[in-house]
Design a protein that fits this description.
It is globular, with a radius of gyration of 18 Å. By secondary structure, the chain is mainly β. It has strands at about 1-5, 10, 15, 25-30, 40-45, 55-60, 65-75, 80-90, 100-105, 110-115, 120-125, 130-135, 140-150, 155-160, 165-170, 175-185, 185, 195, 200-205, 210-215, 225-230, 240-245, 250-255, 260-265, 285-290, 295-305, 305-315, 315-320, 325-335, 335-340, 345, 350-355. Strands 14, 15, 16, 17 and 18 form a 5-stranded antiparallel sheet that branches. Strands 27, 28, 29, 30 and 31 form a 5-stranded antiparallel sheet that branches. Strands 5-4-1-32 form a 4-stranded antiparallel sheet, with no helix packed on it.
């Protein structure tokens, strides 16, 4: 698992502040094979809290990681943030991870998605309403095309689907999810199917080979309750089969490979000023169980404020990020309930993005 630690931004009473740099942005790599988080190494590269938090792509053979960065410290004004266009390629094949390639792709590189065979990479650009298509060969990435979308569409998450010929992209600006045909290193310019799930669909996750997927509908940070939708990938046509309320602003979402459980990391109005009547001091992890094709909330657990990514680590361990308390909160799932484990704490910044190799 890869965790991107953001050092360029923090919240002070609901206001985004760029602190004097105490540490560089970095990606920390973990091995959970033993059931405990073991650090494999750290690489200093730009990361960004903007965009869907599950934005790091790792190849199926676990030999490369691709890390996009949508914004970072401005070169001209050290205490402000500016759009970045960076994609960092990290070699995981040696004794310690190392940066081997840096690409400049265009405005606000938001998230990265790898095809199942690891040969194709798609990077979304939310602020530029486009995607960059890259070929991956011998562990390095090369731009082979661009895909332009309607103005204001805001493509956020891209995910290749298990059918081997479809790519899902969440369009937060138009409240839809597009399914695109792909082959080799080409993607059809128009979606063959559009799905309507909820307000501001952001994070998208495929539940292994179960035939299900989920999307977190982030909403507008209004204090209203927001939602998660369950998608049947085997239906004809592919469609949303259930949508449930989970709480304010599900920033991260993931599901187990067997399609039984779904987790979200809710910001829960922890990012507004303390004197705001909607304010909550902590974020929240929410556990949902899939029963007869529907989603049922079965547990909740508090985590630190400004929640970001949520991810399964294996079949029954889950992780949730909190930017504010600089922790990766860990839980086991037992009997449709959370069992809290010891968290991982980061120095000099908060965990903002994450990624894991297919299958774990």
């Amino acid at each position: 698992m890869a965790v991107g630690v953001e050092a360029d931004a923090k919240l002070v009473d609901g206001e985004l502040v760029v602190p004097a740099r105490a540490a560089p942005d970095r990606v920390v790599f973990f091995d959970f094979a033993s059931g405990e988080p073991r650090r494999r190494g750290v690489v200093d590269v730009p990361v960004s809290f903007q965009g869907p938090p599950t934005s790091i792509a790792i190849t199926p053979d676990r030999r490369r990681a691709f890390v996009p960065a949508a914004n970072g410290r401005s070169a001209g004004k050290a205490r402000t943030l500016a759009s970045l266009d960076v994609l960092s390629v990290i070699d995981l094949d040696g004794p310690t991870p190392r940066l081997i390639q840096t690409l400049h792709l265009g405005l606000a590189a938001t998230s990265a998605a790898l095809s199942p065979d690891g040969g194709m990479l798609v990077v979304t650009h939310a602020d530029d309403d486009r995607a960059t298509i890259l070929r991956v060969s011998d562990g390095r990435a090369e731009v082979v095309g661009r895909l332009d979308f309607d103005q204001g569409a805001r493509p956020l998450a891209a995910v290749f689907l298990p059918d081997g010929h479809s790519l899902a992209i969440t369009f937060a600006g138009s409240n839809r999810i597009g399914l695109f045909a792909w082959h080799g290193t080409t993607i059809a310019p128009r979606a063959y199917r559009e799905i309507s799930a909820g307000v501001y669909p952001a994070s998208f996750a495929v539940c292994g080979r179960s035939g299900l997927a989920v999307v977190g509908n982030y909403g507008s940070v209004s204090g209203d309750v927001d939602t998660v939708s369950l998608i049947d990938l085997r239906a004809t046509p592919v469609r949303v089969v259930d949508t449930v309320s989970v709480g304010p602003s599900p920033e991260g979402v993931d599901c187990s490979a067997d399609g039984r459980h779904v987790v979200t990391a809710n910001q829960n109005m922890s990012t507004v000023a303390a004197d705001d009547p909607r304010f909550a001091p902590q974020g929240e992890m929410v556990l949902l169980t899939v029963r007869h094709g529907t989603l049922v909330v079965t547990d909740r657990a508090s985590i630190g404020a400004w929640a970001q990514g949520a991810a399964f680590v294996g079949q029954d361990m889950v992780a949730g990020e909190s930017m504010q308390d600089h922790r990766l909160h860990l839980f086991r799932i037992a009997g449709d309930r959370f069992v809290r484990l010891a968290p991982v704490t980061f120095e000099g910044g908060g965990p903002a993005i994450l990624g894991r190799a297919p299958g774990g």
